[in-house]
Amino acid sequence: MSEPDDDWSAGVTAGFIDPVSMEDDPAELFAGDAGTLDADVRRVLVQLLRRKFLLAEKNPAQWRTLLENQQIIESRMHDLFVRLVVDHDRGVAYKQQVRSVELDVPILLKDDPYNRAETLVLVHLRTVFQRERGTGETSARVDIEELEQTVLTYFDPYDHNLARRQQEVRNAVQRLAGEGLLAEESTGRYRITPMVEVVLSREKLAELNEWLRDRNEATA
User: Fold this and answer.
1) InterPro entries annotated for this entry (predicted)?
2) Tens of pLDDT along 43-75?
3) Dist. CA 107–CA 81, nearest whole Å
4) Which CATH number fits the domain 19-97, given the four candidates 1.10.10, 3.30.70, 3.20.20, 1.20.120?
């Protein structure tokens, strides 16, 4: 095999082939990889697309990666017609489906509405959180027994299957805890996180409370 041409070798060392940035020429993470993001940034992007929220408190390393690479992550999400929202005060990031009457936007994100029990638990959590903050408390907490007692009053009074209704409430608590709205501090004792304000605005809370009052009066 012939040796490399001396002039060509000199050209390489002299800088005819310039180094490129990681964004333009990354190391492949898998066979045929054409992506341009570092592995950690890709993981954050996937988490944002997979989960409802990314919480700074629960995922500090991913939160730092998000803030350091927010522009490129935002760009990737915009390519999918998805908007990134980063709430620095509450330490939460989440996504929103872009919708437009002027533009034909394919819908990527499916609505995953809360069921009856989840909505009722959410209303109670938001109410307690708002009340405690209004008195100057920096945090709000609830017990599972308190949640059950309050939420069950909104169920059908003629439904006498107490065990089934209690399980519905506990399943709702598990979902909301999994989404970061609740943090279990001890068995059956939960701290309500500021995420509850993102999910349920003050205006929506007032609307739901009025609906529940009307419903209770109708069944009284």
Assistant:
1) JetB (IPR025449)
2) 999 999 998 899 998 899 999 999 999 999 999
3) 8
4) 1.10.10
Q: Mind listing the pLDDT tens digit for each residue in 96-137? A: 999 998 999 999 988 788 898 999 999 999 999 999 988 888
Q: 0.85 cut: is pTM over it?
A: no
Q: Say whether 164 sits in a helix, a strand or coil.
A: helix
Containing H/E element for 198? helix 195-199
Fold for the domain defined by 116-219 = Arc Repressor Mutant, subunit A (1.10.10)
* Residue among 177, 208, 194, 205 nearest 137 (CA): 194
8 A C-beta contact, residue 182 and residue 125 = yes
Phi, psi torsion values for 190, nearest 5 degrees: -125, 145
Helix-, strand-, coil-residue percentages of the chain, each rounded to 5: 50, 15, 40
